[in-house]
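cron nightly-structures :: item 1 of 1
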Amino acid sequence: MSLRILIADDHAVVRRGLKQILADEFKRADFGETRNAHEAIERIRKENWDAVVLDITMPGRSGLDALKEIKEAKPRLPVLVLSMHPEDQFAVRVLKSGASGYLTKESAPEELVGAIKKVLAGGRYVSSALAEKMASYLAIDTPNAPHEELSDREFAVLRMIASGKTVSQVADELSLSVKTVSTYRTRILEKMGMKSSAELTHYAFKYSLVE
């Protein structure tokens, strides 16, 4: 039986590159492609896949929301999250949400192949640098950065506000009321000890939470 791998990324050139890298290693693999979280969730619900490579930042719904829905629909399906964001800012959060691994887009092709092999075998993949960093966090009582105290939904709202979206635009994309998003914004400001969206934006760019 051939291997079936779904690649979810909003950039066609990235999807093609990932497909070529994996096709060179997995000669009999079949590949699917989706451009956003909604398409990915639909195909995962309707079709059988052996692994998913999921971009965390796509138009519309956040990759974190998509990851949770994917794991609810197919709990045993390995999902390898691929992101342009530094792994120390996102990896722990996505692993807690059910991802089988985390890779930055700067990773070498052979690292991607190794990560897919590991998650297909039922393992979890993190880079050696991140594994070392996580071990050091456990060894000493390191305080969390303010954004690490946010829930996944609060984290998604923070990133959207920091990207320049209005409360109305955030509400529309997340299918929430404006009042609910305003409540999230207030809660985020309180948790992070800030007073304005401008402060949130500055913080998000400082910590590479937005592109």
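cron nightly-structures :: done
The two ends are 39 Å apart (CA to CA).
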